[in-house]
Specification:
The structure is a homodimer. Helices cover 36% and strands 18% of the residues of chain A. Chain A is an alpha/beta fold. The first copy, chain A, has a 6-stranded parallel beta sheet with strand order 3-2-1-4-5-6, with helices on both faces. A two-stranded parallel sheet of chain A has the order 7-8.
């Protein structure tokens, strides 16, 4: 039995897609939402897409207590508010996997441009805001939420994982790679999120032009040794 | 007969690799260098790797006059100096393809980090510095110079092309795609170079970890309609 995987913002497109894919891969998931009612609705929708899912729906702070590795999949506009609300819920030793992208859409700007975050990246802002002893790993920025949430699509792309401790990243990589078609690539320390978070606006721009749901693949890595 | 393709900084690893690949694809190339002697040596080396090459070696300012689309493949440290030296050589109507990446290595920092460029990117700095009527397109940041310069390697990756006019980018894409294994992807306006230039330090970091010569592939684009 693997541990439940809480997803804060699990009613949003990225969070729900992640929950659905993980549930279909046999992982227990916990959908967190600001409202217990919306969490419950997302659980019902998920149960239709993944009939054998082990899933529960809770308000975010309760969801965050359910497992050691917590995913945060909220818009940048809501990231700081969510992290404030989780201060009493997160405990030392937990990992927070931040997927936040600081697109300018947060302030009515273009989703093809980003905002400068004083700390360097949304992930580094998250690391500053979580309680002492909680470690942030950044991942999942480049996976199309539409693609992820469509159970009929076969994924075939990479997830770039940034974090300061290799062992932490490896735990996140294991979860990511339990979803068929996703390969986790070690993209360096947490500060590399400054780069990786920028890939989302680039892909949004490409998607507008190509009518695609683009993702990223790093070429030239050995097929076997995909995690280092 | 296609027009000669000048490569400023063609004795460097990226420039030479580009020249060699283009020459093997049957394109006439002009290797530019600060010194005519070094240009000549690069031509000799190229003639061994591509026996049928149409190639000449010239000092940069003379090379830049030889064709309508000029590639600039110099280190960031030397970019502004080169553009100053080309002020009298470049003429309205020419395209300058900038491959410069502002890594912190330019100031003895890490190649896995970048410097902030006031204009937003090295390519935008180039656009500011070229004579009026010369247009900058940014490309080739993510292709490993080692990989490009190794004639025994089959390339299999994308080149992200940024520029403000689609027709200009299409001309650059045509040259890029004359090299087997490279696909050009329209990555948006020139300002998107702010993002694309950051991919090089990311790949350098991945290469150090994976002992690879990594590149980038955009997934989810149709195989047929690769240029939009």
């Amino acid at each position: 039995m693997s541990e439940p995987i809480p997803i804060i913002g699990g009613t949003g497109a990225l969070g729900w897609g992640l929950a659905m894919r993980l549930a279909r891969a046999g992982r227990p998931v916990v959908i967190g939402s600001r409202s217990a009612e919306r969490a419950g609705e997302a659980v019902e929708r998920l149960a239709r897409a993944a009939p054998d899912a082990q899933v529960e729906g809770l308000v975010n702070a309760e969801a965050a207590r359910r497992g050691p590795i917590v995913f945060l999949t909220v818009p940048f506009r809501a990231q700081a508010e969510n992290l404030n609300n989780l201060r009493d819920a997160l405990e030392p030793g937990q990992l927070l996997v931040d997927a936040t992208v600081p697109t300018a859409a947060a302030v009515s700007g273009k989703a093809t441009r980003t905002l400068g975050v004083w700390q360097g990246s949304a992930a580094q802002q998250a690391q500053e805001m979580v309680p002492d002893g909680v470690t942030v790993v950044a991942a999942l920025h480049t996976v199309s939420a539409q693609e992820l949430g469509d159970p009929n699509t076969q994924l075939d792309e990479d997830v770039l994982v940034c974090g300061d401790r290799k062992a932490d990243k490896a735990r996140v990589a294991e979860i990511v790679e339990s979803i068929p078609g996703l390969r986790a690539v070690n993209a360096g320390p947490l500060e590399a999120a400054r780069i990786v978070e920028q890939l989302t606006p680039l892909l949004i721009s490409i998607n507008a032009r190509y009518k695609s749901r683009a993702g990223i693949r790093i070429t030239g890595l050995g097929a076997e040794d995909h995690w280092r």
